[in-house]
From TrEMBL:
Belongs to the aldo/keto reductase family. The keyword Nucleotidyltransferase does not apply. This is Glyoxal/methylglyoxal reductase. It holds the Pfam family Aldo_ket_red. It comes from Nibrella saemangeumensis. It comes from the Bacteria. Keywords: NADP, Oxidoreductase. Residues 18-257 form the NADP-dependent oxidoreductase domain. PROSITE patterns: ALDOKETO_REDUCTASE_2 (PS00062), ALDOKETO_REDUCTASE_3 (PS00063).
Amino acid sequence: MTFPTTTLNNGVEMPMLGLGVYAPGHNQEVQQAVEWALEAGCRLIDTAAAYYNEHEVADGIQASGLSRRELFITTKVWNTDQGYEATLRAFDKSLDKLRTDYVDLYLIHWPVRETRLDTWRALERLYADERVRAIGVSNYYQPHLDELMAQAEIVPAVNQIEFSPYCNLPEVLDYCRQKGIQPEGYAPLVRGLKRNDSRLVALAEKYGKSTYQLLVRWSLQHGVVTIPKSVKQDRIRENFDVLNFAISVEDMDLMDTFHDNTRIADDPMDYL
């Protein structure tokens, strides 16, 4: 199966659908999840220093037998490692754990007020040194991006935010698109919190799909790179089996009304 891709603002091609590996308490299962995802055709793996599983991602990649060039690996600098020099050191540690000499996308995990601008300068340095193919941010809303864009030499290629019908801020997506920043959404499945929403269940039955498949498809149809997380083989396969149907315009509009600010992570506006 060939998954769709998007072209970032620097010309790098990025898969639209990937595997998130934030899995607290399941770290011993991450290697297997990566192997299953790659078997299913996935080529985007999204990890972070704070997930403490970069080495297991590397194990899964090695076991897959796929070449490094076939894959798109994202990792992120954690809050306590931010700052110019500290970020450069953190990047080296991530490379060691991932057992690679570059990453495809390196993100600032959260917009820590005191260090985020120096951290971005470090990412620009890594990009200039060709140690990363693209750089971006995570959990940035318009105020954070306004501040960054006033000083940045490089426009972020990606902004990864929490994104689901229940945490749907179209103004953030619109802003990113105006600036040429590709939106990427994490927690599209809302950690299962909404699987019994009667409106979602009714739509899933209409399309003959699971509620999780409907959530992934909704995100993709908004043009957002989507990284559902699972460590279960059947769920991983199901999450990636979303390319053979489309949600109608009317039903997309209906799902857009589900927003109730349900979050599984912090609100970025608390980082002003």
